[in-house]
Amino acid sequence: MGVCGGEGGAVEAWTAERTAARTALTMLSAPLCPAGVMPVAIESGFGGVIFHEACGHSLEATQVAFGNSEFAGKLGQRIVDPRISVWDDALDPEGIPWPFDFEGVPRQRVNLLKDGVAHGVVYDSYRAGKENKSSTGHAIPSPSPFGPMPLNTFFSTGEASVEEMIAGTERGVYVTRFHYTRPVEPTRVVVTGMTRDGTFLIENGEIAYPVKNMRFTQSYVEALNGVEGIGRERRLLMGWLGMGRDAVPAIKLSRFHFTGATEF
Q1: Closest by CA position to 56, among listed 246, 252, 235, 226
Q2: What is the mean pLDDT of residues 142-149?
Q3: pTM value > 0.85
Q4: Is the pLDDT of residue 198 over 90?
């Protein structure tokens, strides 16, 4: 991948740059899209933000113990669509293997969500000691207000392609990326933010035209209970604060709350 990947990588990077430039020029004259609740077809880069906010920050022991998580008191209960499973595994060669955490503790695989059910949480030594448990090897650099964190997450795939997601949408939005997302209500994983780098209106199963970037406020857990399709391939993305990696597919959601449009 990228310019370091030999001739093929250089061609790929050059093509990506041309695509980005073409998208940017197209967006200059894009119209505004009215706010509202509508289906979204989401590239894996965008989906990764949803998955990590909904699972990574919520399924760590400190947030669960303090009641600051959607999953507090709900381990063993179905939280999201049963097609969704999420696990953290720093030794999986599909990612970038990273055998020890920042305390030098061996990392363990932890199933966070299994078939939509809240299954497990991650621990560092401090939180594990508080609960008379063992660290799962998920300490991040100290001092930190965040507690342990899953940094090598993998998300279950489905059978759909992005093209099929778009073709099955009568009217909706195709999003390539999220930007500047911030939590609003962590106990429901409500997040606000905006789209970026290409947002397009879907009409009658086709990309109709680009629109201005859109603002949203949405509970990610609620959104992940309206799954209409999951991509058959995962993309490896840079993880939280540049630490670790997330392997995520594209996803289509039946309802997403857009609150307005930007001027760019």
Answers
A1: 246
A2: 83
A3: no
A4: no
Q: What is the mean pLDDT of the chain?
A: 84
Cis? peptide before 143, omega within 30° of 0:
yes
User: Where does the pLDDT of residue 28 fall: very low under 50, low under 70, confident under 90, or very high at 90 and above?
Assistant: low
Q: Give the tokens for residue 147.
A: 């507690």
3-class secondary structure per residue, the chain: CCCCCHHHHHHHHHHHHHHHHHHHHHHCCCCCCCCEEEEEEECHHHHHHHHHHHHHCCCEHHHHHHCCCCCCCCCCCECCCCCCCEEECCCCCCCCCCCECCCCCECCCEEEEECCEECCCECCHHHHHHCCCCCCCCCCCCCCCCCCCCCEEEECCCCECHHHHHHCCCEEEEECCEEEEEEEEHHHCEEEEEECCCEEEEECCEEEEECCCEEEEEEHHHHCCCEEEEEEEEEEEECHHHCCEEEEEEEEEEEEEEEEECCC
Q: What's the pLDDT band for 145 if we cut at 50, 70, 90? A: confident
Q: Is the pLDDT of residue 146 over 60?
A: yes
Distance between CA atoms of 5 and 14, rounded to whole angstroms? 12
Furthest C-alpha separation in the chain: 59
Identity of residue 61? A
